[in-house]
Amino acid sequence: APRYAVFGQPIAHSQSPRIQSAFGKAHGIEVDYRAIEASPEEFAAALEAFAADGGVGANVTLPHKEAAFALCATTTSRAHRAGAVNTLLRKGERWHGDNTDGIGLVRDLTGRHGLDLRGRRVLLLGAGGAARGVAPALLDAGILELIVVNRSPERADALVDAMSEPGRVISAYWDALREQGDFELIINATSAARGEGNGFNLPLSLVNSMTTAVDLNYGEASIPFLAWARAAGCRNSFDGLGMLVEQAAESFQQWHGMRPETDAIYTELRGRDA
Ligand code: ATR
Question: DSSP labels for 117-184?
Fold first, then answer.
């Protein structure tokens, strides 16, 4: 039977196996999808071993999304623009890479949360693999402007350059955020809270009465940013669980050719951590 997996480090607490098997059940397919832990040094060999063992599709999560991109023979244009891959599909003897994170986020924001992204000013915190994954889809969804801010400014500049839309996508310094006005959408794509769990130092001037805050992390890693968002008076704030489920649906569709319904598993997972 064809095998599927998610690669990451750490990976033990990944919800992806549960989500993929729920989608499979709803469509009457038994999905063999496992979590495989691999360090950055082990990743390429682990992926080859998986392919040799019948692996035909995989998700890739941190810290391997950029490495996965580099290992692909071909990619979709959205993965190419992101420079990061979260979905692998075996084609012959090679890997084809896609990035479903961005469309997953956009579906969660517009579908589940009813947000209209067109004409919005968006602040993106972070410029790593997660940020690169979502930036192209936000632009495709018709936002007005994307301001990218990152601890190391060179990486924010690199993301901006990769989007090739100067004037619409611009970088800013963290210390100068006060000069950037307010935003209808603020996205935390940093892994700051996954490390030492420090708080967020962001000016209240970023927030207006319509601001939505979304953290691409979910669970504990989203607590500091969402606490800031609530204290700052954001109208809505939510974590990345919806995006996780939506990107999983997109991956499932690519592997199995069927579009899964996401509400049931979203509610189930939400209920568990509530
Ligand atoms: P991911 O795949 O989650 O994006 P990554 O590529 O390692 O992982 O990127 C992590 C992001 O979180 C980067 O934007 C990083 O900033 P740097 O590029 O300056 O390293 C950001 N980040 C991590 N720890 C942080 C912290 N303590 N404060 C602010 N930003 C942090």
Answer: -TT-EEEEE--SHHHHHHHHHHHHTT-SEEEEE-SSHHHHHHHHHHHT-BTTEEEE-GGGGGGG--EE
